[in-house]
Specification:
Layout: E1 3-4, H1 12-24, H2 27-33, E2 40-44, H3 51-64, E3 71-75, H4 82-89, E4 97-102, H5 104-111, E5 123-138, H6 147-157, E6 162-165, H7 171-183, E7 188-191, H8 195-203, E8 210-213, H9 214-222, E9 227-231, E10 257-265, H10 270-284, H11 287-295, E11 300-301, H12 306-326
Parallel strand pairs: 2-3, 2-4, 6-7
Antiparallel strand pairs: 1-11, 4-10, 5-8, 5-9, 5-10, 5-11
Length: 332
């Protein structure tokens, strides 16, 4: 189930979910039968202040207004998100402890050799909330005016051109690896400690390519500080509707979005999973939250069912295992 993020994009399915939520799981009945009596912990395995943290707190506030108990965000950082994920995986499957994670959850199964939990078996996806695109940026002085131009120059350079990343397993690296695999070309990776210095080096022409989040990349492109060649999402962005997708540029296998999801410990009762998903869908149907998510770069709102979320996350785990293996990145 997908919900376009534009002001008129409320889908019929999401509208039905919004209307049906009170009837699918009456608050009093669910609270008495299976709903936890204590505040719900929404564990975030990343540091406070980042985009995922901001979105998690927005969702927690919205759910606190809809559920019998408050939903409290708890940051449990470390090991690329694995510490927080492990805490949730080992928690009681009663709905009182949930995980708010992103694309990194699907990557970690192939990136870390000694996990004390199984991201696929020990955590159950509740819903994938939203997808945020990345934008393919080159320096303002680049001779490339299209993805085709860029790929032609890459092939001639034979691995001597560079791209910026924030290190192994980060979104900047992942989306670039996906593109390089689809195009059948090589580049040298230049890792940075954070996206900000990577952006500065791209603007100065010290690296040849940077994929950046839409909400920061679009202003750079529209102001002329960088040149956007394509958007990584499956659809064109309403922010820059003239910018082609990577699929339109000839590389559909390079389609990529950063996603955010809520997961629960394996074995959590189905009525609890259904209730959380229904309330998330109802919250995303409301104008204020939708608008704020769009401002954060979430151009595609999903709020899919637990069954759909399971298929989505499992396919992502499989996809990134293949990408990392072909890139020669071994589990550490």
């Amino acid at each position: 189930m997908t919900v376009p993020a534009g002001p008129r994009g409320l889908s019929r399915r999401l509208a039905l979910a919004t209307c049906a939520a009170p009837f699918l799981a009456p608050r009093g009945a669910l609270a008495q039968e299976v709903w936890p009596t204590q505040p719900v912990r929404l564990v975030l395995p990343y540091a406070p202040g980042g985009p995922t943290d901001v979105i998690a707190r927005m969702i927690a506030d919205a759910l606190s207004q809809r559920l019998p108990q408050r939903v409290v965000v708890e940051n449990r950082t470390g090991a690329g998100g694995n510490i927080g994920a492990s805490v949730v995986a080992k928690s009681r499957p009663d709905g009182a402890t949930l995980l708010f994670s992103n694309t990194g959850h699907a990557v970690n199964k192939s990136l870390y050799a000694r996990l004390d939990y199984d991201p696929a078996a020990d955590l159950t996806p509740v819903t994938v909330l939203a997808e945020s695109p990345m934008v393919m940026l080159v320096p303002p002085g680049s001779p490339d005016r299209s993805v085709a131009d860029f790929v032609a120059r890459l092939r001639a350079a034979d691995g001597r051109m560079t791209y910026a990343s924030t290190g192994t397993g980060g979104a900047l690296q992942l989306v670039t690896l996906l593109f390089l695999k689809a195009a059948g070309v090589r580049m040298e990776e230049i890792p940075y400690r954070g996206a900000a210095p990577a952006v500065q080096d791209l603007l100065a022409g010290r690296v040849d390519l940077l994929y950046d989040a839409g909400f920061t990349a679009f202003p750079l492109a529209t102001s002329g500080q960088a040149r956007a060649l394509a958007v990584s999402a499956a659809q064109r962005s309403p922010v820059m509707p003239d910018l082609p997708t990577v699929a339109e540029a000839g590389f559909p296998a390079a389609t990529f979005s950063v996603w955010q999801a809520i997961l629960a410990p394996a074995g959590t009762p189905a009525p609890i999973l259904a209730r959380i998903q229904a309330e998330v869908a109802a919250a995303l149907a409301e104008g204020p939250l939708r608008s704020r998510l769009v401002e954060m770069g979430a151009e595609r709102l999903l709020a899919n069912t637990p069954e759909e979320a399971r298929r989505y996350v499992d396919s992502e785990i499989t996809r990134w295992a293949s990408v990392l293996r072909e890139a020669g990145i071994q589990p550490q």
